[in-house]
User: Fold these one by one.
Assistant:
Number 1:
Amino acid sequence: MCAWCAEDSNYCPLMNLELVFTPSGRIAVVESTEQPGGLPDSALDTVPNGRLDRVAKAFASSQPEGLFALATEKLEAPLAPSFAYWRDLAGRYLPELCHAPQNAGAEIGQIPPPESPEQDAMLLSVPPMQGAEYLTHVAIETLWKDLDAWVRGEISSSGQGLTDFLKRRGPLWHQVG
């Protein structure tokens, strides 16, 4: 039985998704090349939306939105190593965001990327995944800065401040800080 779909099936395409890191420095959601049970791709149309599906759709919208969704979505089932790795990276950002001082109104200052030793640990903990060889300090800093810019832009455009943004977009995190 699939924990995501609540389907009594040996095939769940949502559990067959992976995150890859491209040579251009982007995170992409792809289907695993091996289809369990040899079922056709059309089986994708029969699966109800779930939490991981929402994360995949967020990545389709933008990389920072996907990272934010991955870190804020309550995912109870075991994740593929690539999803767990990127959730941990984005999850390092959220406590920093929650402790950030708010300037006037909805403005929040930049959250600096992790220091080099922490980035070293992130690079050493990369699981076997497609594109792992392209991960560098620069790539991690770029991903972090993109996530930070997206979050600060969303908070600013909402005009409601960090607390209300987190209540709306990351309810698991709204009381941290």
Note: The beta strands are 17-21, 27-31.
Number 2:
Amino acid sequence: MTAVRRLIFVMSVLLAARVIGQTVPTDRFVSTVNNYRLHILDWGGPQSGKPTLILLHGIARHAHTFDHIAPELAKKYRVLAIDMRGHGDSSWSPDGDYDVEDYVFDLEKVVERLGLNGVSLLGNSTGGRVAQVFAGLNPDKVAKLVVEDVGPERPQSIANAFARRVEQEKDGWANENDLVAQLVAQNPKTPEALLRTYAHFGVKKREDGRLIWKRDPNLVKGFVETDLWDRVRRITAPTLYVLGGASRIVPPETQQKLKDTLPNVRVVVMPGLGHYPDEEDTAGFMKIVEGFLQ
């Protein structure tokens, strides 16, 4: 994408937001510890006086992948979408510390530094694992929890698939359109506009001019077989799991165990959808989530 086309893309997004009365987020950074800086998109700011809803993205993604739902959620919440460590414009871990617990530690520091209480959380994929563990370890700080197509378990097969993907994509793409074409082919149910946002805000130029993801390749060190039940069973907040019916990330036996384990849980399966229902059927997803949050 040329500089002119890039400018037109960004301006069209901002103009569309203003035309329909949506706010545009403020970029901010929060320092945690050891000089980590986490990039956050802040929809509303502390002056809004609204309760806080924190959005946590999936592995290898970034905060802007919530741009299509954050404006609607911002009507009733101060929405904070976070680039987790190693992703987007946030710091990378020099030691490859990317376990779920590392992301949870960062989230705890963000909540502490911003003086937040009674937050609601919405996380998809790895962000959903982080949200679950945070809610289990900090039950007094969470008002409501929404988890998208992920449970307390990550099998080795999923970890291996991500490692292969990182290896396959290490040489990047000649231009943004090539990346978008690949994403469209891989995600036929997701609107191209959302995939273009994912690509546009998720890449940087390498020295040779090729585009590569703004993510640490060492994310694979933390994306390993995982069992989080010991933390998840401590969740007390009202909890909603929204699952894709065509996804196998949370099998029926895990769904039943969640219902048997958590005191205030609802599990909703959206038929025919994959790992990111919020993108494949945004209207249907938002109807479920907004009904729960209200």
Note: Residues 3-19 form the longest helix (17 residues).
Number 3:
Amino acid sequence: MEKTILRVTCVIIEQDGLILAAQRRPGMDLAGQWEFPGGKVQPGETDEACLIREIGEELRVPIALRYRLPERIHCYPGKTICLVPFVGHLIRGQPMLTVHQRIDWFTVAELPTLNWCAADVPVVADYLQWRAQLGSK
């Protein structure tokens, strides 16, 4: 039997040199771990439309996407996900806490110190590499 791969998007929201991360609340899978906000892609929905919808629902803010990072496959017990990360920014407003235990802004240097969900770990590394490449141009 072939295992279904769940397509999930996430966004690294940058603002004023800081990065937004969200901590999963008790009762959720991976409770207490950090992730970049996002969600499952619905049938017929593009990755970009999914993120705009999910961030509107979860954080109650509009976002603009500016760069797509490499997709990452991760196998959790009982499910495999294809995580599709983007880099973006807020169009206006401040994110609201609705589904997570905590949301907070971190410096780029602080990102590696957070207790990330396993699927987000390579995304953090890809993001840091992308930023380093931008700085060297």
Note: The chain has a mean pLDDT of 94.
